[in-house]
Specification:
about 260 residues, Rossmann fold, 2 domains, ten-stranded mixed β-sheet, globular
Length: about 260
């Protein structure tokens, strides 16, 4: 799974796609605003930086910025997109090759804020995911923050039900059913019944024309994975950027991915 996903992210057309992205997701904008009075004192690590989508928003406002990616092609794209000569302030901005599963190049308690956006964590296996949480707990300062997004199995459950693909618009219904057919074709061993009965699943989804296998998890199970190393965990809607504050709202949420803001113990 991991090697296959890595090959996708090193493909030239994928690198070119990510180097053109520039807009923050609604939940990312929420966090940018939430910490607006603190960024200037923060040492930030941006994991899975890709083509630098988040770099332009954070690197000029934090005290120190480090972007890492496990694809050298992505790091090269960032270095070309953000050469040192274009930095507008005296703040530090660096990019380097790095793998979230083993960040031994960083000492304990190195960062105040760690970002892992665009569901980059979901390209890893279950055990590797837990390994990443341990590494982030190690290199993050106590009281610092970890902010990441992850696919929601709860949202996928809705997508797997063909009745939810029916619309008053015949064209929309057709497109929805075609996408559902492709989703089921690439995941022939996975049924709606199986999705309903599990806490996480590996899905070959529509990302980059069904080339990626990704980890989907139920929100409550994600909270369970985080509780050993993180406190004060908050969940934000991908679509609205608003915090989901009640169990009822979380259970009713159908977003295909969610954002989690955690404080490092």
């Amino acid at each position: 799974m991991v090697d296959r996903n890595h090959q996708v992210y090193t493909a030239s057309e994928i690198v070119n796609h990510y180097r053109q992205l520039c807009q923050l997701q609604p939940a990312e904008q929420t966090i940018l605003n939430l910490f607006r009075n603190e960024w200037s004192r923060i040492k930030m690590l941006d994991i899975g930086v890709g083509g630098g989508r988040t770099t332009q928003h954070f690197s000029e406002i934090v005290q120190e910025y480090m972007g890492i990616d496990y694809a050298q092609e992505m790091i090269t794209a960032c270095q070309k997109r953000f050469p040192a000569s274009t930095q507008l302030s005296s703040r530090s901005r660096k990019f380097e090759l790095g793998d979230a599963r083993n960040m031994s190049q960083f000492a304990n308690n190195s960062f105040d804020f760690i970002l892992f956006s665009f569901n980059g964590l979901d390209t890893l296996s279950h055990l590797e995911r837990l390994q990443v949480f341990q590494e982030i707990s190690r290199i993050g300062k106590s009281g610092g923050y970890f902010f990441f997004s992850s696919h929601s199995l709860q949202g996928l459950e809705r997508e797997f039900n063909w009745l939810n693909q029916i619309s008053f618009n015949p064209l929309t219904t057709y497109v929805n059913l075609v996408m559902l057919g492709l989703l089921r074709f690439f995941n022939r061993s996975i049924s709606l019944k199986r999705i309903k009965s599990t806490n996480y699943e590996i899905i070959q989804d529509e990302s980059h024309n069904f080339r990626l296998k990704q980890y989907y998890i139920r929100p409550q199970e994600q909270l369970n994975q985080l509780e050993a190393a993180f406190d004060n965990i908050k969940i934000y809607s991908w679509k609205s950027g608003l915090e989901i504050t009640t169990p009822e709202d979380l259970n009713a949420n159908a977003d295909m991915w969610l954002y989690y803001l955690c404080q490092i113990k």
